[in-house]
Input
Amino acid sequence: MTNPLLELKAFGQSIWLDDIDRGQKRSGLFQRLIDQDGISGATGNPTIFEHSISNDTSYDEQMQKLFAEGKSAQETYEALAMTDVKTVADMLRPTYDQTVGQDGFVSIEVSPYLAHDTEATLTEVRRFWHSIDRPNLMVKIPSTQEGVPAIRQALSEGININITLIFSLDNYRQVVEAYLSALEDRKARDMEISHIASVASFFVSRLDVLVDKLLEDKIKATSSYAEQQQLRGLQGKIAIANARMVYQEFKQLFSGPRFGALQKQGAHIQRPLWASTSTKNPAYRDILYAEELIGPGTVDTMTLKTIENFRDHGKVRLSVEDGIPLAGAELAALESAGISYDQVTQQLQDEGVQRFADSFDKLFACIEDKRKALKEKTIPHS
Output
């Protein structure tokens, strides 16, 4: 039997594990995903690390040493995360070398507390980049209004950047502009650009979660059967339509003379990365988003569960090019229904930043709980 995950490579798509977990590395699971399923990257974020550190005792020994050194909760988190990211980077280094620096990346995210502070973001990006010191590292910066200039500056300094929390076409264009401008900045200074890598992480399923709810509210508010059917016809469709329109934009932006001039100097494309591709609505196919966004020059970050499901029953085809006129019509129909695309996508980005900040809060609280628990273990009882 063929492995659908391995078939994706023939279509030019990379699969990255949307998880960084020390237990998976120690058990050999992550290496098996690389060897048997062709997984070629990994990403972490505050939510992922909060879950890993909360549920995995593999971190306890290092945490105990860090506590003994008097490290704060944030310093402890950073030490744990950097240790994991370095290990994963080294495990992915053969992939990075085999693909001549075009794949095999691991990502770590800047603090969500800095999402609206350009200079503080840059300071943390530089610190992570130099401390981790791996060529196949990407540092994640959210595509907020303040994040975009930080993205351009970091890339112009030669730091690989994974741009996160992109939801709208306009925001995607800003991100691509930051990437191309950064490469041009380097060329203007006669600096090398062939080693610069970047992905634009476009969040998918969260759009349907919010839009489906708004559509349901409108369905309940109208007594017109025809209108209800029209609104129901948009449910579960907008996220894929949005991503497919992004892909069309990607092809256009990276095929013109501007990028062509940079490509002659060794520049790589900035690949669209489909994030949040696990299906949230149990009424939809469990690998809906993974199946419908397959295409050349893309990355899909999948959770372990989505990877297992896709391995089991994934159907592989060049799907990201399907129904482009229909995709445009569905986005137009959403506006006609009175749901603002711009408002929805901005709300999702704002909520995304807040969710990561909430995860940081939970993570630091978890670390403090662990500090107390480990301290109690070491106190002798009479």
